[in-house]
Amino acid sequence: MIEDRVEYRPYHDPEARPLTAPDAPTAGDTTNPADIEEDAFLAGPDRHAQWLDRQDGELLDIDWIFGKELGRVLAEISAYDRMALDPVAGEPESPSLEAAGYSFRQVDAGVLLVAPDGSIAGAYLGCDLAVAGPHRGQGLGAELVLERYLRDGDLPTWHLDTAAYSPEGEAAHRAGWRLLQNHDVLSRKLADIGLKRPD
């Protein structure tokens, strides 16, 4: 089975990553991270606005070819940078709101999903999103997308020429956007990762 995944792109430097809400702007120069349209969430606010103006070309590139297994995602990022999976100092591990015992950990290359037994159950590293088979069907892929967005202030796919996803990756990102629209989920997530909800 193909994992949720988008085209590989090296992660951005954690020192250079934007601060997350309330300081990082999102769509429409607002400080509310939920104030973004669904297609803009997938494509990136700037690309989405340009696409609406021109209505030419593809907004998203959806293809099964972008799918990867979790093991491959971890191996590729580790080969690129041995320290890519090291936890970011001072970043709190946050519990899953979707599945008991799971948590999310910020690492240099993105965010890891940690299973109750401490193993890596999923990851959003660079542009690669993957959840291991036994851990699917619990909403963890969507929550992993939300964690990455809130921690980084954007999604890595926004920096591709065209945001690219497997069909499963697209579905996880759309589900992540729906979680973002839930006031209670957003408030709890922001609190768990040490941020406050903007007024």
Q: How many domains is the backbone divided into?
A: 1
Helical region count? 6
Mean pLDDT across all residues, rounded?
80
Spans with pLDDT under 50 lasting ≥5 residues? 1-31
Taking the alpha carbons of the first and last residues, their distance comes to 42 Å
Residues in helix, %? 25-40%
Spatial strand arrangement across the major sheet? 2-3-4-5-6
DSSP, total strands? 7
Order of helices and strands: HHEHEEEEEHEHH
Gyration radius over CA? 16 Å
Largest sheet: 5 strands, antiparallel
- What sort of overall outline do the alpha carbons produce when their principal axes are compared? globular
Oligomer: single chain
Structural class: alpha+beta
State which percent range the strand residues make up. Answer: 5-15%
